[in-house]
Amino acid sequence: MLALFVLIPLISVLLLNLFRLDFIKKVASWYGMLLALVQICLVLFVPIDLFKPGVFSTYFAFNFTIDSLSILMLLTIGIVVFTAIIVGQFTYTDETKNFNFLNLILLTLAAMNGLVMVSDIFSLYVYIEIIAVASFVLISTYKDKIGLESVFKYIVLSITATSFILLSIVIFLLISGNTSFESISNAIKNPENSSFVTVAVALFTCGTFTKGGLVPFHGWLPDAHSSAPSSVSILLSGIVIKVTGIYPLIRIMCLAGESGNSVRKVLMFIGALSIVVGALASLGQNDIKRMLAFSSVSQMGYIVLSLGTGTALGLAGAAFHMFNHAIFKSQLFANAAAVERQTGTRDMDKLGGLASKMPVTGGTSIIAMLSISGIPPLSGFWSKLLIIIALWQSTNYAYAFIAVIASVITLAYFLSMQRKVFFGQVAQGLENVKEAKLGLITPAVILAILTIFIGLFFPLILNKLIFPIEYILK
Amino acid sequence: MNFISILLILLVLLMLFTLMVVISSRLLFAAISLAATSILVTILMFMLDSPLAAVFELSICAGLITVVIMTTINFVKPLTQKDLLKTRKRRFKKYVGLPIVLAIIGLLASITIKPIALKLPKIIQETNVLNVLWDFRQTDLLGQSILLLIGVFGILVLFREGQNK
């Protein structure tokens, strides 16, 4: 059953390309959206116990397993991929380009689903690499100088990151005799291996920092996210950095247990540094997408800072913020795509007064902005509150203070963006701008509703999706 | 010549060819150096009793390098003699220190890192390719097939689309 999360998108790509008919190219996006929707529904409404080994296990030995963290990740993947496919229809005007994008996004979906379900650290590495290769192609689809340059930077940093991860896997293999999570967990419990474990965890963490775009390994992220097509930016900022950076980090830190305590201190420092550097860098940007990319660096910092506490509440805060960030950041990138499409620019200095011309885009953007800044009762407020409480309870008062102050900076740069883009007088040359097409504003509206819903009914989300994750610490 | 000396010579050659991949001013020469790197890695793996890894390196890289060389020949636009000299000078200045840094790191590593006697796990001792792939690494095989398709679409998107422009 679990393998179907990987096999269905994979087989779909093969079937869609069997004939490459015009009719198939036309409906392919709808099919992709349907697949993402089915994934969301399956994860939300099918009890976890039903995801048992099925008919495939008789013939195949895929080592996929599922737990509460995987469930949350599968849900997040479904939501972001759904949004990216809708926006993709408006990003690529050429039908063939859109079809190729859809194929790549379905393959990325298969790889991301596989990554969050594997129970073996080497398989984890394999799927991280697959997603990286897909990202390289997706970012460079425009084939312009900035895009190719950013991809080159991403490739170099990505190779460095995976070298660290591979080296750490070698150490784990040598101490545990196997690469399965279970064997590694058992080997970590042996006190004789503690120094090896610390080195291996530190190396693995360095790799995931690069993949997650954390300071000082974030050099590739602003360039890649801003130069990529809008739908790809949604995918990268919304889910790829989380699946390849944060998810493996959570897994390894939970496996490391007490042995990871020294690394946790580094996690907290890097987290706080990313929060501050990302927020300050966002303040100075003129390009909307570049600002959003730096904002992602800052928000990833919150997640890592929370994870660094090593407590159950810290883990819950990290997971909840990761989920919320995927939703409101996808929405903000969808808004940016709508603005770019209607005005032809992303330069905030050339924009202004769009709220009257694009009321839905402006309205939904305000909701996402308030949520990411941690304003109650929206979703971002509750996840940031969890993070701050976790920091306070673990007596990390200074870090808690930094998290609060950085939230104010977040509000400042997003207010600045709103003022420049949506408020004030309509900028010269934009008098005839109209609201984006229904298809392009639909994902923003859905995600805005979701942000409000999660904020209002946060106990439901916490109890069903977030708090069950805490058990992986045990 | 003993085993260690051969290994060392191969490692030095490997280092030189990998450097050529990065610093060569001719794309085709870089692609050929990449092929040489792959062959050297294969020989090293055979010598270090890892025939399985060697076969994989040779089979995958042979395919990959053919694609790289073909693409290079397709897209390469030769530099003028003047540009070539300029690029060579610039690259030489940029990378001249690299072999020295690598040599110092290697020397330090050989002094500080002592060999650790470790019992190799069962999976590594298994030499039957089919057993390894089918019994132990099916999930990775699934991943490889995804990667293969991504490669196909990568070529379509990057090289086929807009080729007539």
Helix proportion of chain B: over 70%
Question: Which class best fits the helix and strand makeup of chain B?
Answer: mainly alpha
- Helix tally of chain B equals 8
Total strands of chain A: 0
Computed structural class of chain A: mainly alpha
Report, as a whole number of angstroms, the end-to-end distance of chain B: 57 Å
User: Main β-sheet of chain B, in a few words?
Assistant: none
The oligomeric state of the chains shown is heterodimer
Shape of chain B: flat
Q: How far do the termini of chain A sit from each other?
A: 26 Å
What is the tally of helical segments of chain A? 20
Main pleated sheet of chain A: none
What this model shows, in words?
The complex is a heterodimer of chains A (474) and B (165). The two termini of chain A are 26 Å apart. Chain A is mainly alpha-helical and 474 residues long. In chain A, 77% of the residues lie in helices and 0% in strands. Chain B has 165 residues and is mainly α. In chain B, helix 2 runs antiparallel to helix 3 and helix 7 crosses helix 8. The N and C termini of chain B lie far apart (57 Å). The model of chain B has no long low-confidence stretch (mean pLDDT 77).
List keywords for this structure.
heterodimer, A: 474 residues, mainly alpha, 20 helices, B: 165 residues, 8 helices
Briefly, what is this?
The complex is a heterodimer of chains A (474) and B (165). Helices cover 77% and strands 0% of the residues of chain A.
What topology does this entry show?
The complex is a heterodimer of chains A (474) and B (165).
Chain A: H1 4-19, H2 22-45, H3 56-59, H4 68-91, H5 95-115, H6 121-139, H7 145-176, H8 181-189, H9 194-212, H10 220-227, H11 230-256, H12 261-283, H13 288-308, H14 312-343, H15 354-357, H16 359-372, H17 379-393, H18 397-421, H19 438-456, H20 458-466
Helix pairs in contact in A: 1-2, 1-5, 2-4, 2-5, 4-5, 4-11, 4-14, 4-19, 5-6, 6-7, 6-11, 7-8, 7-9, 7-10, 9-11, 10-11, 10-13, 11-13, 11-14, 12-13, 12-18, 13-14, 13-17, 13-18, 14-16, 14-17, 14-19, 16-18, 16-19, 17-18, 17-19, 19-20
Chain B: H1 3-23, H2 27-47, H3 51-75, H4 81-95, H5 98-112, H6 122-125, H7 129-136, H8 138-160
Helix pairs in contact in B: 1-2, 2-3, 7-8
